[in-house]
Amino acid sequence: MFCSCERYGTEVEDMMIIEGIAVDKENETFEVTIEMLNNKQSASADSSNVGDEMTLIYSAKGETVAEALRLIINKTGNVPTYIHNKVIILSEEVAKTDITKVLDFFERDYTTQAVTLVCVAKGVKAGEVLKANIGKDISKSEVLEKILNQSAISSITPETRLIDVINTILDETACVTLPAVSLENNGETKTFFVEDIAVFNYNNEISYYLGRESAESFVKLLGELKNGTLVTQDEMGNKATFIIVDGKTKYKAEVINGIVNYNVKIKMYCDLNAYEGDKFKTIKSETVEVFKNNIETETEASLTNLYKTIQINNSYDILRFGRRLLQNDKNAYKLLKSDWQNNFKNSVINVDVEVIIRRIGEESYHE
69 or 2, which is more confident? Predict the structure, then answer.
């Protein structure tokens, strides 16, 4: 049930209630695609006479994002409202240039929402994401919002709202990351797919992607571990799947002989979800200890390797570790921030992972 409080005196059916916005670019021209609620269907008790689609799609081109959005108004005749906008989708072409020029409108316009999710369309135009056939009577923007939120809850990609992007850009030492959404064929329909992370440089231009495994390690190092899955083996090679039910990360940054040293302590609480060995018999405590040690060793190695990979790839501080140093040693941060890219490249990390296995079945596990 919507009201017209944002545009006093405007009826619901006369409003452009925007659900999602996609931005593409060709040469110097922006193409903006919006998904809006089918207002007549929303406002009518009998939707049989106002069209079957829950949402409508409109596009327009302009020299700026703001101009293109205003031109869409000429096509709909509706008064735009951004308060219900769920997602901003940027194409790879848009991401190749300074994204601040695109996001400026969304930060400056007083009716937009700072908590709107932002992502990159990978391998497809941003407008095609909103135009994709994912089923009937569905808001594509609402589905994508749910997928992005679940991806963050599952610790696959971090939650990235407009305010998060702006704050990262304003941080003198940090670089932006955005979840990447792709389209997969599913017969006659399409499916949204989110698991990669787009990495931006200090000019706020896309540089490369982190794949699924690296993305999950990134979320852990970033301190946004919520839950997820881990697969390891026992001493006989039988696979075991664990569910991460909670995670906590602590950081300590210090400068030793001019080199920034990071000590990262991660504690993961896990439950055994499936096990190939022992044919339903009680798992021995020695085997549980093997699981614990393996997960700790494997996770420490993957996080350390990711850190080195980030350093090799132009040392863009996507982990916002410059701010970690600021929180621990303001004087050292002031001395090092002017050449942070090199200082981050030369930094050292020590990762310590502690795994606490809570359950191995119906019964709680106690060491």
Answer: 69
For 209-266, what is each residue's pLDDT tens digit? 999 999 999 999 999 999 999 999 998 899 999 999 999 999 999 999 999 999 999 9
- As given in the structure block, the two tokens for residue 355 are 């795994």
Identify whether the C-beta of residue 151 lies closer than 8 Å to the C-beta of residue 196: no
Q: Which residue type, as a one-letter code, is found at position 167?
A: N
Are 130 and 24 in contact by the 8 Å Cβ rule? The answer is: no
What pLDDT shows up at residue 47? 43
Determine contact, residues 176/204, Cβ cutoff 8 Å: yes
Q: What value does the mean pLDDT take over residues 89-117?
A: 94
* Helix/strand/coil for 49: helix
How is residue 74 written in tokens?
Answer: 């000429």
The label of the residue with tokens 């930060």 reads: 107
**What Rg, from alpha-carbon coordinates, does the chain have?**
24
Q: Judge contact between 42 and 12, C-beta under 8 A.
A: yes
Longest CA pairwise span in the chain (Å): 75
DSSP structure class, residue 78: P
Bridge partners (DSSP) listed for residue 254: 261
Given a contact cutoff of 8 angstroms between Cβ atoms, the answer to whether 169 and 320 are in contact is: no
Torsion of CA 343, 344, 347, 353, to 10 degrees: 160
Any residues with CB less than 8 A from the CB of 65 and at least 6 apart, and which? 23, 30, 32, 102, 105
Distance (Å, whole) CA 184 – CA 138: 17
Q: What is the model's pTM?
A: 0.91
Query: Please, what is the average pLDDT of the chain?
Result: 90
Say what the alpha-carbon torsion angle 90, 16, 12, 88 is, to the nearest 10 degrees.
Answer: 10
The whole-angstrom separation of Cα 30 and Cα 33 is 10
CA distance 317 to 59: 36
In the chain, where does DSSP find H-type helix? Answer: 39-43, 65-76, 92-95, 100-108, 126-131, 140-153, 162-170, 212-222, 285-312, 321-328, 330-336, 340-345
- Which pLDDT band holds residue 5 (cuts at 50, 70, 90)? very low
Nearest alpha carbon to residue 194 among 165, 158, 230, 221 = 158
